[in-house]
Amino acid sequence: MVGHGQLSELGDITMPANARLFDLNPRPGCFGPEVGFAQRFLELMSLDELWLIKYAVGGSSLLAWEREWSAERAATAGDADKGALYPQLIGHVKGVTAGEDVKLLACLWMQGESDSRYQAAAAVYQRNLTRLIVDIRHDLGQPELHFVMGLVNPTPARFAFLSTVRAAQATVARTVPNVSPVDTDGLSKHEDDLHYDTAGQLELGKRFADQLAHELRSHAAGRATD
I need a labelling partner for 39 at 20 to 30 A (CA). Which of 17, 21, 119, 191 fits? Predict the structure, then answer.
């Protein structure tokens, strides 16, 4: 989610003029799914302006994003040194939106590779992801906030507990309201076969946009028929 797409490879591709990015932890010279997302989402939805409020930390497990963060728990996935990330996320969103006429539409989530490396982290991924969604909705005052997540797909040989994390993501998408998965299969990657390259990041963003637009329209249609 931090992004290993190369800005130098975008050519004429740019963020739309009516899209604003607020990135708390940018990677110099790189971009994530935000570029492809902004382009596609603004094509699909009628918005005067789109704000993307981003906070991503590479190589972090869900144990680093717990609301009730514990250095001991985070250490089981090698994340104790990152500190508590959740309060920074919520603080960033609230800081950007304070006093502004902004409607929060969704949380876009692309994470889980790190948890796929550690049995202890993978075993509690479903519980931790469910709790994260509940906490974000509560702390942002948006009980029905859409949560759109990319399904992780690193190399199983290097990430031994990938199937556990993928199963957890599927279960959460099936059982928690307003949660939907985004297929990441087939996206192009760098030579490490882990991080998405420029084309992969652009396509990932478009897939997020397609899914969120579908969910928002379905939700609106359902309310119209109530």
Answer: 191
| Cα–Cα distance, 11 to 79 (Å, whole number) | 36
150: in domain: yes
| Domain extent for 135 | 5-220
Q: What is the pLDDT of residues 109-144, one digit of tens each?
A: 999 999 999 999 999 999 999 999 999 999 999 999
Q: How many domains does the chain have?
A: 1
- Count of CA atoms in the C-beta half-sphere (13 A) of 29: 4
Instruction: Indicate the SS3 state at residue 204.
Output: helix
**What is the Cα–Cα distance from 173 to 152, expressed in whole angstroms?**
14
Give the domain CATH number at 136: 3.40.50.1110
Closest C-alpha among 21, 126, 107, 2 to residue 60: 2
pTM of the predicted protein model: 0.95
Task: Please check whether residue 212 lies inside any domain of the structure.
Answer: yes
Counting Cβ atoms within 10 Å, is residue 177 exposed (0-12), middle (13-18) or buried (19+)? exposed
